[in-house]
């Protein structure tokens, strides 16, 4: 909290070059007129949680989608806003730093000043702690000058990533009232945007004038749903990590005697590991979602890797690269259960050195089996969401240790006839998250910043800035805003002590879809990656020339554009209303009724509440 925030940086030549780059805006955000079309009321994606969410968020649930339109759009009921009174807006970084965060603030600033030069943007210093303490810095062009298109969060800093307790919420409201803010913009991931939704609801109930807006910024790539295709920072993180992985692959192929185990940052979901695999083609990746779905044990994972090592050795290949997501450790059933016991005891105040004696017999047996360094790391106090401190648990060393032990055993028994197994371990986490943002993340973040202003101009509260059709050029991006409550789901039940209360609505992390096109692409190439050494090096992060406009593979292979489809559906419904009017022929009416009845029956079945309580 005492750091010198907002001071000018000393920039390298590359940084200076990047600071001059002006991100492009889609047509719907250009000019000084805000055109917004409010669609139908939103609902929860899982109907079984709708009642709980609507009860928890009576003021902000069921709000309509907002589509921002270009000047040439012909929409009769669009709201056209030409008057832009001066606004006072606060912005805060919540959660871990992610490349592109500064450009969100730049976009907000530019949009505010374009529409009214007298508007004020205040940045809270030191994250949510700065919000509670009302420590601010006015964001000006001078402040922004050395932070445009730059990595990190050091312009404002960050601390805790939560605004959750009654005391914290009240402190946030007090700050907004004292500073007379028209809006508070929260930049962060799933946890921060869940908090943003709760703030918006609380502010609305208290008749506080401050509107709350969320922005999807997280390197983990797990704030994904029908409205949000990807997150600011994910593209950069994956490109930087993919180059590092590719360099390691080349090293492995050159020395031909090492197996590299690389753990990647990304929290519980395996999005980063999947994307990096598709970009760099290492020999193997163990996704946490696969492990959880198949209920693979530590023993199963060890044998799976050992079998792969043995298969490669039969082709005279005694090297390889294996990726592991940092959330893998919590996906292993017996380790997850052990962690739940440990966390429960820690929350009861049991000291770490006495935990082992109070574990259940089966948990104690597993704990004693593990190497000392892992034991120590599993005993770390859990995060605020009850997850383990994943970045501190060296899963790659644990897996490498178990694989080495098993390979030595096979070598001794004569079932493995290759060379002695040698492992080298890496954790790629902090190396990438302070990177200069990619061209995509620069554009995406800046556009989201502009959308934040459009949301405020439309008087909306409890919304997240969204862009769809992202795999296409910027001029085809669809800019919109979706209520955060429409992104929420409800946990059916907790899986251990200290978990979220039953039925608590939240924006939950999206896991890798094992039925999705990205995973299908991985599955199709898994054998080739394993045995053929088809390593691919995308090179360093590129801002011009070949590769500068490349986007994440997982973004490009999926067929998303949810907002576009919603608009297309609305067009069809409008056509039906135009054709089927009183006075139309009996045949037209009968055809319409028959078709609509069929569609309604199908949709009713598809959208009926699930009867199975599935734990998240």
UniProtKB/TrEMBL annotation:
Gene Ontology molecular function terms on file: 6-phosphofructokinase activity; ATP binding; diphosphate-fructose-6-phosphate 1-phosphotransferase activity; metal ion binding
GO cellular component: cytosol
Cellular location(s): Cytoplasm
Regulation: Allosterically activated by fructose 2,6-bisphosphate.
Gene3D superfamilies: 3.40.50.450, Phosphofructokinase domain, Phosphofructokinase, domain 3
Keyword Ligase: no
Involved pathway(s): Carbohydrate degradation; glycolysis; D-glyceraldehyde 3-phosphate and glycerone phosphate from D-glucose: step 3/4
Main location group: cytoplasm
Biological process according to GO: photosynthesis; response to glucose
Keywords: Allosteric enzyme, Cytoplasm, Glycolysis, Kinase, Magnesium, Metal-binding, Transferase
Domain Phosphofructokinase span(s) in chain numbering: 88-453
Source taxon at top rank: Eukaryota
Keyword Transferase set for record: yes
InterPro entries tied to this protein: PfpB_PPi_PFK, Phosphofructokinase_dom, PKF_sf
Function: Regulatory subunit of pyrophosphate--fructose 6-phosphate 1-phosphotransferase.
Family: Belongs to the phosphofructokinase type A (PFKA) family. PPi-dependent PFK group II subfamily. Clade 'Long' sub-subfamily.
Subunit organization: Tetramer of two alpha (regulatory) and two beta (catalytic) chains.
Protein known as: Pyrophosphate--fructose 6-phosphate 1-phosphotransferase subunit alpha
């Amino acid at each position: 909290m005492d750091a010198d925030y907002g001071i000018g940086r000393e920039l390298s030549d590359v940084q200076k070059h990047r600071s001059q780059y002006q991100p492009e805006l889609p047509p719907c955000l250009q000019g000084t007129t805000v055109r917004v079309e409010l669609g139908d009321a939103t609902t929860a994606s899982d109907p079984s949680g709708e009642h709980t969410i609507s009860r928890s968020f009576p003021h902000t649930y069921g709000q309509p989608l907002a589509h921002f339109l270009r000047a040439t759009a012909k929409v009769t009921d669009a709201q056209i806003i030409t008057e832009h009174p001066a606004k006072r807006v606060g912005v805060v970084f919540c959660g871990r730093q992610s490349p592109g965060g500064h450009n969100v603030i730049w976009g907000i600033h530019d949009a505010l000043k374009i529409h009214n030069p007298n508007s004020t943007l205040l940045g809270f210093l030191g994250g949510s702690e700065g919000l509670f303490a009302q420590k601010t810095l006015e964001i000006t062009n001078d402040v922004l000058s050395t932070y445009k298109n730059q990595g990190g969060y050091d312009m404002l800093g960050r601390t805790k990533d939560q605004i959750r307790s009654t005391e914290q919420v009240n402190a946030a409201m007090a700050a907004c009232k004292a500073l007379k803010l028209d809006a508070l913009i929260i930049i962060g991931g799933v946890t921060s945007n869940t908090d943003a939704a709760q703030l918006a609801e609380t502010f609305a109930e208290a008749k506080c004038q401050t509107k709350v807006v969320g922005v999807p910024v997280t390197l983990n790539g797990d704030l994904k749903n029908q409205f949000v295709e990807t997150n600011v920072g994910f593209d950069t993180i994956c490109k930087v990590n993919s180059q590092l992985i590719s360099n390691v692959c080349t090293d492995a192929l050159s020395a031909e005697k090492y197996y590299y185990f690389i753990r990647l940052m990304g929290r519980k979901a395996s999005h980063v590991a999947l994307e990096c695999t598709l970009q760099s083609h290492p020999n193997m990746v163990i996704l946490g979602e696969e492990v959880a779905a198949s209920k693979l044990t530590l023993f199963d994972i060890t044998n799976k890797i050992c079998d792969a090592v043995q298969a490669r050795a039969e082709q005279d290949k005694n090297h390889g690269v294996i990726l592991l997501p940092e959330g893998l450790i919590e996906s292993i059933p017996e380790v997850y259960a052990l962690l739940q016991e440990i966390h429960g005891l820690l929350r009861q105040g049991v000291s770490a050195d006495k935990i082992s004696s109070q574990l259940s017999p089966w948990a104690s047996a597993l704990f004693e089996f593990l190497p000392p360094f892992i034991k120590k790391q599993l005993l770390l106090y859990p995060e605020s969401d009850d997850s383990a401190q994943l970045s501190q648990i060296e899963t790659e060393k644990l897996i490498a240790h178990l694989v080495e032990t098993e390979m030595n055993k096979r070598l001794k028994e004569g079932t493995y006839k290759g060379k002695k197994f040698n492992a080298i371990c890496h954790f790629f986490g902090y190396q990438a998250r302070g990177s200069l943002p990619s061209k995509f993340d620069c554009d995406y973040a800046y556009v989201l910043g502009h959308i934040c202003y459009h949301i405020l101009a439309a008087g909306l509260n409890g919304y997240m800035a969204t862009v769809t059709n992202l795999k296409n050029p910027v001029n085809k991006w669809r800019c919109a805003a979706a209520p955060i409550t429409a992104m929420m789901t409800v946990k059916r039940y907790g899986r251990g002590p200290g978990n979220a209360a039953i039925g608590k609505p939240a924006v939950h992390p999206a896991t890798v879809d094992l039925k999705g096109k990205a995973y299908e692409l991985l599955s199709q190439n898994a054998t080739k990656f394993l045995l053929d050494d088809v390593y691919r090096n995308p090179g360093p992060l590129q801002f011009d020339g070949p590769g500068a406009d490349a986007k994440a593979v997982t973004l490009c292979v999926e067929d998303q554009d949810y907002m576009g489809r919603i608009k297309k559906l609305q067009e069809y419904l409008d056509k039906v209303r135009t054709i089927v009017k009183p006075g139309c022929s009996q045949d037209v009416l009968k055809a319409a009724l028959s078709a609509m009845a069929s569609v309604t029956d199908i949709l009713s079945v598809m959208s009926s509440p699930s009867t199975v309580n599935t734990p998240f």
